[in-house]
Design brief:
The complex is a heterodimer. Chain A is of the alpha+beta class. Chain A is built from eight helices and five strands, in the order H-H-H-E-E-H-H-E-H-H-E-E-H. By secondary structure, chain B is of the alpha+beta class. Chain B is 55% helix and 6% strand. The longest helix of chain B is centred in the middle third of the chain and has 32 residues. Classes of the chains: A alpha+beta, B alpha+beta. The interface between A and B is large, with 55 and 45 residues.
Chain lengths: 177, 238
């Protein structure tokens, strides 16, 4: 298969899909085992979109690729489709989520120890939103539930994968409260 | 008339403590315990006066602070077994440092969320048979079950005790799935008139999910749940 043909197929798949498509998934569809070949084609497609300067962009998020609109056109889309609301998380939810993202798998007690407050309500919200999931149980007294982040977490924050969040050592506490 | 004021300024005791440290431009590793204790307690008094619900979590730190303060005020007598106030202080400082980092991490996430919120992908198409791709979690199943159980019964009837075992329902569900690809969550429960039958059916379904003989899928969050029979090869795949 020629490179141009592969790129066109990938473009069709991304155009059609309502969620990020992984290299693996694309590979299965186009029947190519060579991951690098597909990744290169997808990256080339991404660059072409950048150069073309249209309303769309190819994003590398949640361990996959997706064709999305650009943020500067969001107001027009909201006008077109009123019920398309994107939720934003509360501060307690964000704090809890960041603790889980860095320390996963982690138990509720460990989260509460860091934040100093009860976390059960927030965990329920995050589970409902599928931003976190139960990863199993800790081999400790009481076999407490372990929580971890999901693909939806990566998608919600536009992250390629977990390595994209800055390491805790890099985070410099700011002087403002 | 009662007015209830709800301010969610502080996320918890550590947040409040961190606020006090920053407000007074203190060094986390060298907090003047006397000053911070009285500041902290003043805030708690304020919470009370404003009639704010404050959790017991705030009191744990308060008592730690008071304990520290009293230890520092009293003349030191050589005691071997008790922990030094410095240990408490160090522990508190370490916890504050850690909390501060996650607070910062949360604000970084918030920035990313704001960047992402105006970027739209394609909306899910109207689901067809094949597009039930979201794995329904145990919580989704429980939610759906709750809706069924608390649906008001249409008429009052005589109670006939029916003895049906979970194993029987399992076999019935599997039979049902024999000649079709999937069955909706609602359909499985539709013929079950009593709560007891609903529960037995639900238990049967949970058991089948646990044994990975069937799997539950949704087309979108909070959407309809469909139960699929797992094929042998798809068990190995997922």
């Amino acid at each position: 298969m020629e490179r141009q043909e592969l790129k066109n197929i990938i473009e069709c798949l991304l155009f059609f899909s309502d969620r990020p498509l992984s290299i693996d998934k694309i590979g299965k569809i186009v029947e190519i085992d060579n991951c690098d070949e597909i990744r290169e084609a997808a990256e080339e497609l991404k660059k072409e979109y950048e150069i073309r300067n249209t309303g769309l962009q190819v994003l590398n998020i949640a361990q996959g690729y997706q064709i999305c609109t650009k943020s500067e056109f969001s107001s027009w889309l909201r006008k077109f489709y009123k019920s398309q609301t994107t939720f934003q998380l509360s501060l307690p939810a964000l704090e809890t989520l960041s603790i889980i993202a860095y320390r996963q798998p982690i138990t509720r007690a460990e989260i509460e120890r860091i934040r100093g407050v009860d976390a059960s309500g927030v965990l329920g919200t995050l589970l409902g939103r599928k931003l976190i999931r139960i990863q199993g149980r800790k081999k400790a007294l009481g076999r407490p539930i372990l929580y971890g982040t999901t693909q939806e977490f990566l998608r919600h924050f536009g992250l390629k994968d977990l390595s994209e969040i800055p390491s805790l050592e890099e985070i410099k506490p700011q002087a403002t409260g | 008339m009662d007015y209830t004021v709800k301010l969610e300024v502080f996320e918890g005791p550590l947040d409040l403590l961190l606020h006090l440290v920053k407000k007074n431009e203190l060094d986390i590793f060298n907090i003047p315990i006397c000053q911070i204790t009285s500041d902290y307690l003043n805030y708690i008094k304020l919470f009370r006066r404003l009639n704010l619900d404050f959790a017991g979590d705030f009191l744990v730190i308060a008592s730690t602070l008071i304990h520290l303060k009293s230890r520092m005020l009293l003349p030191s007598i050589e005691t071997v077994e008790e922990e030094e106030p410095e240990d408490f202080q160090l522990e508190l400082a370490t916890r504050l440092m850690e909390y501060q980092k996650f607070k910062e991490a949360a604000s970084l996430l918030k920035e990313r969320e704001a960047l992402q919120k105006d970027i739209y992908g394609r909306l899910p198409a109207i689901p067809g048979d094949e597009d039930y791709t979201i794995e329904a979690s145990l919580f989704d199943l429980l939610d759906a079950f709750q809706k069924l159980v608390f649906r008001p019964e249409k008429e009052v009837r005589e109670i006939i005790q029916e003895d049906i075992k979970v194993e029987d329902r399992i076999r019935e569900i599997l039979n049902f799935l024999e000649d079709r690809k999937f069955v909706s969550f609602e359909t499985i429960f539709s013929g079950q008139k009593t709560k007891r039958l609903l529960i037995v059916t639900f238990l049967a379904l949970l058991e089948l999910v646990r044994l990975k003989i069937v799997f539950a899928r949704q087309a979108r969050l909070f959407g309809e749940i469909r139960i699929y029979r797992a094929k042998r090869e798809s068990v190995a795949q997922s």
